[in-house]
Amino acid sequence: MSDSGELATLRDELISAINEAADEQTLEDLRVSSLGKKGVVSERMKGLGQLDGEARKTAGQALNRLKVEVTEAIAGRQAEFKQAALDARLATEFVDVTLPVRPRNAGTIHPVSQVWEEIVQVFGDLGFSVAEGPHIETDWYNFGALNIPDDHPARQEHDTFYFNPREDGSRMVLRTHTSPVQIRTMQDSEPPIRIIAPGRTFRCDSDQTHTPMFHQVEGLVLDEDTHLGHLKWCLEEFCKSFFEVDEVKMRFRASHFPFTEPSMEVDIGCSWVDGQVKIGVGDDWMEILGSGMVHPNVIRAGGLDPDKVQGFAFGMGIDRIGMLKYGIPDLRAFFEADLRWLRHYGFHPLQVPNLAGGLS
Ligand code: DAH
Q1: 152-189: per-residue pLDDT in tens?
Q2: Which residues lie closer than 8 Å to 185 by C-beta, 6 or more apart?
Q3: Which residue minimizes the CA distance to atom 2 of ligand 1?
Q4: CATH of 111-345, one of 3.40.50.150, 3.90.1440.10, 3.30.930.10, 3.20.20.210
Q5: In ligand 1, which atom is closest to the CA atom of 219?
């Protein structure tokens, strides 16, 4: 049977082999060849029976110590392998939680949606609610009720998209403006009325400043004694809030619309610096909307009595004032769904416009 010197050599060999094992399989082979049923340590255990008394006891204790040492060395090496595997995983599956979200992959809010929401916020603050109407209108809502008779030149000017005639010969139209919502609102509600109606409008027209589909916002205020002063104040307040400036130079220019009398177009002061327009200051003028006192015929068409209620209306191009505010040069690009354009001109989805936090 082994003497203590031979056992110490065996121990040193086993422990250094275990510590140098390159992988888990090598380690497992070492475990089998030392502690396994036919392993060197186990074989020596079996040999103990041939010894007697003290010698057996001493040899037994020495072998047991060896067994414990080898077992611990294997467990230690195994733990090292586990730790190394974990380290490797952590190195590859590393997530830097301090990195910002990837803004390049985030969607953006389209300038039309942004400007639409800004307008709703400003007029909402002035006590207006939002009204809506259908895109497909009857000729009467789009024209007749708005004091535009059949032979009126405004019908040609509107470049209307007509649907095929119905059985009775009448033709539906894609609404050419948001003004029909005035009539629908009068029919549906009791004065006092204070609404805006943002929405899509359609005309057969396309160039740098016209697209077949575009957006307008209509305004309508009707009460017993609403007058032009109210209209002016309202639009001034709107312009200051919307363009986020303290003062806006405004000019009310006499004009003509069939549905208002008197009618005015509104220009705002601006200046051009390096091809960019600056709003509110300067000696140039930019037309931004049409407005006027609602024509008695229109009030009547809405089912109300023009001797009892009066008020003002206005209509403004949403895309157009968006182009002005954000310096976007070509209207057609609004509707081309070009991702580069959307990333450049789009707005952050979480920055919802409001008057408290700022519109833009
Ligand atoms: N409906 C007109 C257009 O599309 C815009 C407009 C002008 C609307 C004057 C109004 C208004 O309500 O009073 O050209």
Answers
A1: 877 777 789 999 999 999 899 999 999 999 999 999 99
A2: 131, 193, 195, 197, 220, 302
A3: 315
A4: 3.30.930.10
A5: 12
